[in-house]
Amino acid sequence: MATLSGLCALLGLGRWARLAVLAPATAGFVLLVRPDPSVVRSAGMCAVVLLGTALGRSARAVPALAASVVVLLVADPWLARAFGFVLSVAATAGIVLLAGPLARRLSAWLPRHLALVLAVPVAAQAACGPVLVLLAPAVSLWSVPANLVADPALAPATVLGVLATLLAPVWPGGAHMLAWVAGCATWWIARVAIVAAGLPGASVPWTGGPVGAVLLAVATAAAGAALWNWRRLADAAGVRVPWAPGARPSLAGWSWAVRGTLRACLQRPDRPAAPPEPAPPARASPRRSSSSLP
């Protein structure tokens, strides 16, 4: 849908022309991949966004998700027992609610764009973790890295696969080439999953059932609180923070913090403390509005 919306914008299509393209595309995609619970959730959210567009209102992710979930559960209450539907809702809610704040916190250590790239799978994993424990009493330590590595192949696999399907009746040769490229993308996703599943820590035992889900939710909330107050925790532990609030991370800052922390840890008690090394000048990062985050 994002690809089609971008093409419509490039062609300069108006609101109703976009709706005439996007609405049939949504219905056709559901018919193509079959209406599994996660697909139904995605299509319901797209339908709410399209309805808002038809009414001339801006698209908002949280109201669209909430409205689609309520309508779908009223239409089919048994969706609440489908793990695919619950995981899809949890992952989407985690991304739209947590990815922005997480990106702002992670930008203390990483460049802004890398912080946002990392925040998306972390937010999804934090929201889905308690549900996944209900499926299998184990926690994977490689879920977020695996998602980061596999994510670039998602868009080519989806878009090229759909294009190959549409092109096959008209030009089988061209469809075969597109399907081959899409197959390379799906092969990459599968290989990442297989390799990650074979790494140490891919399945750490955890308490199962509702108790395990609650414990993991509490542990996740505690980790989030630690991330939120990382500067206070660093000061309490005697770890030097390599840059001031609002400053951009730099290699010089990291080097200064590591040297200062090691010097404090290795200082003998009977020796007077060495004078602290002056911190390198911090480069202030330009302020950005939080509304630019998704």
UniProtKB/TrEMBL annotation:
Domain called ComEC/Rec2-related protein: residue spans: 9-230
InterPro entries per UniProt: ComEC_N, Competence_DNA_uptake
Main localisation: membrane
Biased composition (Low complexity): 284-294
Membrane-crossing segments per the record: 38-55, 85-103, 115-141, 153-171, 178-199, 211-230
Keywords per UniProt: Cell membrane, Membrane, Transmembrane, Transmembrane helix
Subcellular location: Cell membrane
Chain segments carrying region Disordered: 267-294
Bilayer disposition of the protein: Multi-pass membrane protein
Pro residues: bias regions: 272-283
Name recorded for this polypeptide: ComEC/Rec2-related protein domain-containing protein
